[in-house]
Write a structure and sequence with these properties.
The chain has 179 residues and is mainly β. The chain has one domain. It contains no helices and 13 strands. An 8-stranded antiparallel β-sheet has the order 4-5-8-1-10-11-12-13, with no helix packed on it. Strands 2, 3, 6, 7 and 9 form a 5-stranded antiparallel β-sheet that branches. Strand 6 and strand 7 (80-86) form a beta hairpin. It is globular. The two termini are 21 Å apart.
């Protein structure tokens, strides 16, 4: 579920063995108090008609590249577009950027809609970490579909920072065919 490249830090939407569609992925970094005027750090609407580049609608330039058989479904998402993944090595890769790395104590949110089946393994929907060691002690975050058919968030701050944090089940259980 992660890209394996030597020392390359990436953000991935890579449900390698997870079939389904992802719609409206947004990453928000907040300062207290949060203001909607801050806007998202990154936002992929997946509403492109064709091609392999997914534009970052936040205006911050964090464009993604589709890999494998991933395809855009411009009208197939919860609200607008989606990216469709067949569960056989498909993913969207976003190059590393400082704005996508959150320091210890920084509040952030990751939001998306997923439509697909539960899985028998813990498959990542969104992850960021060292590609050659995705769960590196140097820091990572991961939103995954668990083997019990729910969502879980897992993160660890930078080296010497906050210990690992796992959310346990978050949100409703996954129902195939529903966003």
């Amino acid at each position: 579920m992660f890209t394996h490249r030597f020392c390359n830090i990436v953000v991935n939407l890579r449900p390698r063995f997870l079939a389904g569609a992802i719609s409206g992925l947004a990453i928000l970094l907040s300062t207290a108090p949060f203001s909607p005027a801050q806007g998202p750090v990154a936002w992929w609407q997946f509403d492109e008609a064709d091609g392999t580049e997914s534009a970052d609608s936040s205006g911050n330039g964090h464009d993604g590249t589709l890999h494998g058989d991933a395809v855009f479904e411009p009208e197939g998402g919860r609200f607008g577009g989606a990216v469709s993944l067949d569960g056989d090595g498909d993913y969207v890769e976003v190059p590393d950027a400082d704005e996508l790395e959150f320091p210890a104590g920084q509040d952030y949110s990751i939001s998306l809609f997923y439509n697909g089946p539960p899985t028998n393994t813990n498959d990542g929907l969104v992850s960021k970490g060292y590609a050659d060691n995705p769960r590196s002690p140097d820091g990572y975050y991961l939103l995954q579909v668990t083997s019990s058919g729910s969502y879980e968030f897992d993160s660890r701050c930078c080296s010497g920072g906050t210990p690992r944090v796992r959310s346990g089940q978050v949100g409703p259980s996954i129902v195939d065919g529903e966003w």
